[in-house]
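Subject: sequence -> structure tokens, single chain

Hey, anyone have a minute? Need the predicted structure for the following. Not urgent.
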Amino acid sequence: MTIKIKHFFSIVFSLIIFTGYVAAEDIFKGNIAKDTISVDEVVVTGTRSSATSRNLPMSVSVITESQIEGRMEQSILPVLTEQVPGLFITSRGVMGYGVSTVSAGSISIRGVGGGAQLLMLIDGHPQFMGLMGHPLADSYQSLMAERIEVVRGPASVLYGSNAMGGVVNIITKQEKTDGVKTNLRAMYGSYNTLNAEVSNAVRSGKFSSYASFGYNRTDGHRENMEFEQFSGYAKVGYDFTHNWRSFVDLDITNFESSNPGSISSPLFDNDMNVTRGVTSFSLENNYDRTSGALKFYYNFGYHKINDGYSPSASPRDSRYRSKDDMLGVTMYQNYSFFKGNETTVGVDYMHYGGHAWTKYLNGNPDNDLADLSLNEVAGYVNFQQLFWDKLSFNAGVRFDHHSVTGSEWIPQIGLSYFAGSNTVIKGIVSKGYRNPTIRELYMFGIRNPELDPESIMNYEVSLTRNFLDRRMEFGLNLYYLKGKNSIIYVEGSQGNMWMNTGKLENYGLEVTGRYRVMDNLNVNANYSFIHMKHDIAGTPEHKLYGEINYAVNRWTFATGLQYIRNLIKEDGKETFALWNARGSFRANKYLDIFARGENLLAQKYEINSGFPMPRATVFGGIALRL
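Reply:
Had a minute. Here:
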């Protein structure tokens, strides 16, 4: 054991001693009987039913609708990278993340992710590209999101493969009160960047609907970096009774993106046209002692990519084409057998895959790269029990069977101790895993169908403490995780192939704080530190974000500063600070006028090597409520 790891566990021991003192302090002051959870976030991602975050042993961050709308972005990703400690998202421009070579939008939590190691969900349904296994960053639009819940750390017991690093669950909008609401927002700014969105929400008795349409475009801050996107979302729900409800939805996104290449290795005609779609049906029940759901979902995509050419080469006479899909069924039921108990039993099935080929412009026949599908089926049980109103015990296990790699057991066990009305101490040991993708098994280079699943073990303790009549909240998390069988692309003399030779060992801490100074003044901040025994590209060693929100009369103001230190890149490390500011004025009950600025310190920095980020940018717009 290295000295640094010894120091880490010394901090863990100190935390345990400190929390014991805090618990004793609460008991001495008589606070045990005054427990109030009304201000705690209610989440569904950590379990399959609504639960307060204090009852869950895992670390969950919740991004509210007001935070999403206040960020004034077409994508949910910028607010995630600011508000969630330990989470980082790569970027290369003012708008658009792209796909294929040197794309951005890679999401990681605690250094785990980057590709297929972090699972994106929409209303609990997995979202990833059927062939490659990774999420599509440009598909996740703010216009559809009511809230976002992020599990920081493995969530494989409930969500299976790809959730080894964590889960980001986008919960879509649904109108709660009777009436018709229509909203429109238009914004324009630097580099000829335009964002326009319109949405309509209806509620009439048992019927509800929500529909939205968005259009985004930019010239980009570099030559040949254009981006254009159309997005549409529709959702219809019906409450059959007080206990039974259902909804069906459809989400379609199409974007065209150009990649100019890095500064040192420019590209011409590296263009892509991508269409992604998601549709689902959900039937849910909710009674006093039991709740559950039956969900069907279908994801699909079509990709047209020109890999481009360097200045010294000739235009390619070939194009990459692929289409993929994923069909899934999720069924689960929660039941409270006795007081303080909640037991969840669930079954998941996924069938995913696709067809990828090279299309030649000179008349040669197409060359198939892959045309196949894989299956996964799993069952799980999760047990949670509250003892003496002070201790919540959580244990779960999942059995997963993959059509190529075989079977896997995934356990999890955790405790939450309520040391008083204002203090919660938690601990969890959990396993995360990821099955190899079709790309890694069969595409690009030498095929390797003998790949094993990746896995990590996560050990974590945390403390949450409220002060000043719960107007201030402080959180501290300490974790250690170690992985095995990490899949990496290895270059060899006989050819290149994917192999289980990568290593992963990280430990770190996360700190969160919120303070409601006054009803119209709020401050929040978060900090994360990650020590990586083996460097992982796209991961910062230190990430700090602080934000102030203030409202007075018709005016609202927000400003935030993000500090990134020692971001791991392919060609070294990067350190930078980004200052942004936003403001809005409510002209009347129908109209808001707003403006925002990004990187107002005009920092010169890169996140992807060779892709300088834009300097200071400004945007302005209007929002209408009809």
